[in-house]
Amino acid sequence: MQLPLETEALVVHAPGADFAMTPIVIQDLRPDELLVEIKYSGICHTDIWLQSGAAGPLVEFPAIPGHEGAGIIRAIGSEVKDKTLRVGDRVLLSFTACGECTPCREEQFSRCADFARLNLTGLRRPDGTTPAALRDDGRPVRSQFFGQSSFSRFSAVHEHCVVRYPFPKEEEEEEEEEDTLAIYAPMGCGYQTGAGTILNIMRPRPDQTVAVFGAGSVGFAAIMAAAAVSVKQVIAVDLVERKLELAKEMGATDAINTAALQKGTVVDEIRRLTGGRGVDFAIDTTGVPSVVEKMLDCLAYGGTAASIGATPMEARISVDVGAFFANKKTWIGVAEGDSHPPKV
């Protein structure tokens, strides 16, 4: 496929602006990149975080979000290390990493020392350039969000993002394969973030309890993972009743609709459900500061909380440090569920 390539993408032209289908030009492909025709993409809270301007100075506009892509390889750079990849292969796309820092050398790629710059700015290339430009005026558009910017029909994707689709073509009819490719697209972030936080980081025992704040795709993945390892209790927390009903179908033992509480707080309700203890593990997928505070407050003695939802860059929360210290609580930030996508 010849470059430059004219295509189109959902571009955010300014902080808080709507997604707008816009003609763009992919100008070149670096030796460590692949040209991928994006067939499907999930949409994640972090895409809305970028679109809203909550990333602050990290992101300049115009920019193309999207980081749960799935598609077909159309060209391969000459220095791509995985020599098994072929033009025409179906692939899933995930986050990128430098591959050189200490965490990367230990295969802890989601803890890459340069994670924020490489994934959140929309600029992956070392020289600070971007593969795409707006067709009409030639302005650069940040087009490697998480190394892929999957809200584009075609994207120049860094090699670290690319994972071969796990089902060989001969096992399925092509039409059916593309349908399952759509189902697997959110593996690139949502599924592995929620499930990985449970399975790779928290690793709860069957006698322990988990609360998940936010019943979206990330929260559902965490709930299913907790149910899969047969924890004692999984409490789903959300504002939307139908999402809580679905959370129960996916394995939640209890559900709290915070919009329907008649008295007390969600922390009071969690303590009531756990016999006064609180939970051993809590996960926030919302990024809402007031929800993060409640996540920390609902922990049992020695409990661990994980923030996996992106917050506005300047957000602050209030923590009762004395109680936090006295009750030996732990609060961690998690990216991508500590997952290594080729091994998920």
From TrEMBL:
<dbReference type="InterPro" id="IPR020843">
    <property type="entry name" value="ER"/>
</dbReference>
<comment type="similarity">
    <text>Belongs to the zinc-containing alcohol dehydrogenase family.</text>
</comment>
<protein>
    <recommendedName>
        <fullName>Enoyl reductase (ER) domain-containing protein</fullName>
    </recommendedName>
</protein>
<dbReference type="Pfam" id="PF00107">
    <property type="entry name" value="ADH_zinc_N"/>
</dbReference>
<keyword id="KW-0560">Oxidoreductase</keyword>
<dbReference type="InterPro" id="IPR013149">
    <property type="entry name" value="ADH-like_C"/>
</dbReference>
<keyword id="KW-0479">Metal-binding</keyword>
<dbReference type="GO" id="GO:0016491">
    <property type="term" value="F:oxidoreductase activity"/>
</dbReference>
<dbReference type="Pfam" id="PF08240">
    <property type="entry name" value="ADH_N"/>
</dbReference>
<dbReference type="InterPro" id="IPR013154">
    <property type="entry name" value="ADH-like_N"/>
</dbReference>
<keyword id="KW-0862">Zinc</keyword>
<dbReference type="GO" id="GO:0008270">
    <property type="term" value="F:zinc ion binding"/>
</dbReference>
<dbReference type="InterPro" id="IPR036291">
    <property type="entry name" value="NAD(P)-bd_dom_sf"/>
</dbReference>
<dbReference type="InterPro" id="IPR011032">
    <property type="entry name" value="GroES-like_sf"/>
</dbReference>
<dbReference type="InterPro" id="IPR002328">
    <property type="entry name" value="ADH_Zn_CS"/>
</dbReference>
<feature type="domain" description="Enoyl reductase (ER)">
    <location>
        <begin position="16"/>
        <end position="344"/>
    </location>
</feature>
